[in-house]
Amino acid sequence: MNFRQAFDNLWRQLFSSPIHLDSALSKAPPSQKSALAEISRLLLQRPVSLAKFLKFYLSEEEPFGLDRESLAEWPTARAMADRLFFAWKKDPNFASEGWPSPFDFPTWMTDEWRRDFGDKIAKELVETLAQPAPLALRISRKLGRKEILTQLNDSGELGQRAKASKVAPYGCVFSSYEPVLNHPLFKTGSYEIQDEGSQVMALFALWPKEFLPMLRKIPGQCREWPLDREVPKPPTHSMTVIDTCAGAGGKVLAMADAFLGKGQFFAYDVSEKKLAALKKRATRMQLFNIKTLALPEGNERSKIDAFSQKADRVLIDAPCSGWGTLRRNPDLKWRQEYDSLERLEQLQKNLLELYAPLVKVGGILTYGVCTFRKAETEEQVQNFLNQNPQFRSIGGGYFGPGPSDAFYFHAMERIS
């Protein structure tokens, strides 16, 4: 299968099925995967600015005014992909020229960014979220970042050297993709792939006062973790920590590792498949202090009422619009419809009301999302606090985008 055929299959899948870009790329022919990954991400991230640079004419409705069926067959995407493939064959490390345009995003999306934060921040968001994302790893605290980073770079098995993250105390980063899942250090549980912001959310949920100074009142470049500051040591007494929307477990694994395998960690999710994947990851990292609980969707209370006021820490990493991940998930902005966002707001409110009762007096509830949309961040937390006087705000804010994805997290202490 040549590149044009492979691209045609991938592009059509993205708009005629629920499949996401990473899944579509995983099924692509190996001989075409590198070119497809580079070119499809560029097209999805910067369609309008690329068309202008390549001198393709777009009508007013292209691309975000087209329906899914029309996008699946969109001829301009294929023509631009051919031109980009020609450049890629000359230089696989080619970088497209030109600057991101606000029109590389749906107008309704950038309009909301302006309403929430003003023109200057909206422009910065456009510039940051149209760029490729780095590859970040979280190194096991038990094994030590310095030691594993040295082993990783001295192994000679990767094409570039990893650098210590400036914002995540146990993180390291590559500027672009590397086959880190094939490395012996991964197979022995030395690290996990995890965005820097996701790592910091996990640490914030455990020690909010220590990590609060890293957050900002508006989205933007992350503040750095001071080189002379150490992450707090795990408490000497056993603590109960619940990750209520655990998925495949990135954050609960980070929290359990930060506690050096001590304490009791519970991972809740409605997907048994994701929890099974979490168990495998925990075993590989030799973290045996995590228990999973599959919840019946729509009837979660039947399983969690027994945990009422038992938890020292509860993390709600809620489903959200995902705008903070647009660098690595650029297909999201092509699929998302504004009407779906109100349903997400209601879901987030329901999750806060569902899981807040698990927090004991003196315990801490952390709400987190990988978006910067005010209706899902500041406004959601303020509404919760207004209706739940038994909680008081410790503080929260935005983290990213740049160099990490963009997040919002907020910690609240139960006082009665």
Rg over CA atoms, rounded to whole Å, is 22 Å
Number of helices: 18
CATH C-level name of the largest domain: Alpha Beta
- What's the total number of strands? 11
**Percent of sequence in beta strands:** 15-25%
**How would you name the oligomeric state of the polypeptide chains in this document?**
single chain
Structure description:
The chain is α/β, with parallel strands linked by helices. The protein folds into 3 domains: 3-98, no CATH class; 134-194, 2-Layer Sandwich (Alpha-Beta Plaits), CATH 3.30.70.1170; 195-414, Vaccinia Virus protein VP39 (Rossmann fold), CATH 3.40.50. The chain is 41% helix and 15% strand. The chain has helices at residues 3-16, 21-26, 33-45, 47-54, 68-72, 75-90, 107-117, 119-129, 145-154, 184-187, 196-206, 208-211, 250-258, 272-284, 301-304, 332-335, 339-355, 378-387, and strands at 135-139, 163-164, 171-174, 191-193, 240-243, 264-269, 290-294, 311-317, 359-369, 391-399, 407-414. A 7-stranded mixed sheet has the order 7-6-5-8-9-11-10, with helices on both faces. β5 (240-243), α13 and β6 (264-269) form a beta-alpha-beta unit. α1 packs across α6 (75-90), α7 (107-117) crosses α8 (119-129) and α11 (196-206) crosses α13. The radius of gyration is 22 Å and the shape is globular. The termini are far apart. The model has no long low-confidence stretch (mean pLDDT 93).
